[in-house]
From TrEMBL:
Gene3D superfamilies found in the cross-reference section: Helix hairpin bin
GO biological processes: regulation of membrane depolarization; sodium ion transmembrane transport
Identification of the protein by name: Potassium/sodium hyperpolarization-activated cyclic nucleotide-gated channel 3
Organism the protein comes from: Austrofundulus limnaeus (Annual killifish)
Cellular component aspect of the GO annotation: axon; dendrite; HCN channel complex
UniProt keyword annotations, A-Z: Membrane, Transmembrane, Transmembrane helix
Transmembrane segments: 12-33
SUPFAM superfamilies reported for this sequence: cAMP-binding domain-like
Source taxon at top rank: Eukaryota
Gene (name only): LOC106536576
GO-annotated molecular function: voltage-gated potassium channel activity
Amino acid sequence: MTYDLASAVMRIFNLIGMMLLLCHWDGCLQFLVPMLQDFPSDCWVSLNKMVYKQVEQYMSFHKLPADFRQKIHDYYEHRYQGKMFDEESILEELNEPLREEIVNFNCRKLV
């Protein structure tokens, strides 16, 4: 029996590729199903939003200074890599002058 190394390597790459594709589809389905159910209160998306609100309430209750708040926000931003909140939807809910103020504040380092 002959052993074709190139064929075996291709089979392994195909297997790994299919595993990655199935994992990706699984992740997509785990977001799609709660989205179709309007994100029930026990789904992971709603739970993450509740964690963010709890952190905000904690900081407000203890009247943490702005630099501490920024450090905490930076930590969560790094930890969740921007996936914890939807900036666009937050800004859309604000009135125009407040939205412009926030955008100017966020872009102050660029100017």
